[in-house]
Amino acid sequence: MLRHSGRHSAPQPPRGRRDPRRLRLLALAGVVAVVVALPLTVASAGQVGDAGRAAGPAAPRGDAKSLPDTARRSPLLLGLGLATATRCGPELTSPDGIEAQTCVLTQGEDTWARTYYRNATGESLDSLLSLMGPGGRTVQMRCVTGADDEPATCETPREHSRGVPDAYTAVTEFAAHGGQGALLLRSGSNS
To answer: Which position among 26, 30, 72, 138 has the lowest Cβ density within 10 Å, counted as fewest Cβ atoms?
Structure first.
């Protein structure tokens, strides 16, 4: 005698064949996984072309101090498909515990400056990153470095390139917080 449990079971596919509902479910789960993982992968990978450059004093875990960008770009397409040319100065370390390397970056028609730093002084510092270009044009970015001894970056806004990449130089200066302290380190993009 067959008992009816009140549950309805779906008919099983013939032996040796896969259930099409299960395949659709697996495909849907795969699409969801890609949709969730893609933004995380892009965010952690950094900008296109950054992987081949010389790393700063320590590999930064992310760009601290927001990176300004012109409004004409879509944030979803930022840097896709364009190589980034990077010209960096030497890695420098001050006796006070600041490590820094400053670079000029060019991508497509844009140029900007970036400094990689690590502040092991135990105090918050001020830094001024300057990008000097052709015709005496200078772009500056002030950054307050945290006292957390973590690798970080500071960038100037991107601007339309005026001339060849070699016409640009970047310099970062680190000083005690509040602007009253002595210069602790100066790092430049030239060798």
So the answer is: 72
